[in-house]
Design a protein that fits this description.
2 domains; 37% helix; 4-stranded parallel β-sheet; 11 helices; 11 strands; alpha/beta; Rossmann fold; 16% strand; globular
């Protein structure tokens, strides 16, 4: 066996030069384009939306939780890219049974993108492009870590409405905001939530709960919060008007090459506040 690269489940993968790639992780689909691998992509999910001017030429096989196996067989991929949080284990098992090599990713911190670049660039023979992305990421990370805006704040980060849902401290988003010295808080978390539910808990929002946070961030995804929701919130909770802001969810939750842009965005976002 020659050089191998180990994914986040501990599976070793050899270098492949003539791959047919099925990407079931939207942010990594974009990474394949930025690594110069778009010609090897034979399938994606309907949620893979970047790069907007090129993505439509890659056939969709379904969503991140459920895919059309007939379309997968037609695409005939040699490799499939999955993520622990975004794709169910049963999907990985079904793909493996078809003889497809499954590569599992699970970045938990922005810094994990360096390993992700190395993994994907290594397996698919794009080491130079992966190193270029690593250099850009490291540069942006350095700028952010030296920012004067890294002031401690307690942050409620909302991702859903009816019911209200937030992210916990055990998430990639929380670790991204931690780069600014912002701590995730989930006041009003409803009882009885464990596992994944506790990572993205349902919460109750009250004036009293909101006294415990400095910022209330309304993410643009997965729920499409916009300025209308901010206005409604400010009307309902006038004592907390200055705390509420829309934040671009792609910039805080997408890993891969978009995380590089995300670091720059986060620095600018903090400066605006």
């Amino acid at each position: 066996m020659g050089v191998t690269f180990t994914d986040d489940l501990g599976t070793r993968h050899e270098v492949s030069k003539n791959s047919r790639i099925l990407s079931l992780v939207p942010s990594i689909t974009e990474l394949f384009f930025d690594l110069g691998l778009s010609d090897q992509l034979v399938g994606r999910t309907q949620y893979c939306i970047h790069p907007a001017d090129e993505i439509e030429r890659i056939p969709s096989v379904g969503g991140t939780k459920k895919i059309n196996m007939a379309k997968v067989k037609t695409a005939a991929p040699t490799h499939a890219i999955l993520n622990v949080d975004e794709n169910p284990k049963s999907m990985a098992d079904d793909l493996s049974e078809l003889g497809i090599q499954v590569i599992v990713t699970h970045p938990m911190r922005p810094q994990d993108n360096i390993n992700l670049f190395t993994l994907i660039g290594g397996i698919f023979n794009r080491p130079e492009q992966a190193q270029a992305l690593t250099d850009k990421f490291s540069s942006e990370l350095g700028h952010l870590e030296q920012s004067d805006e890294r002031l401690p704040k307690k942050v409620l980060y909302l991702i859903w409405k009816d019911p209200w849902m937030a992210v916990s401290a055990e998430t990639y988003v929380a670790n991204t905001l931690q780069l600014l010295n912002w701590q995730i808080s989930t006041p009003g978390m409803l009882d009885g939530q464990t596992g994944d539910a506790a990572r993205y808990p349902k919460i109750e929002i009250t004036n009293e709960n909101l006294n415990d946070v400095d910022l209330i961030l309304f993410s643009s995804e997965p729920y499409s919060f916009d300025q209308t929701h901010i206005s409604e919130f400010q009307t309902a909770f006038p004592d907390h008007v200055q705390k509420a802001h829309i934040i671009d969810g792609e910039m805080t939750s997408w890993y891969g090459s978009r995380a590089i842009t995300g670091l720059s965005y986060l620095r600018t976002f903090a400066e605006r506040l």
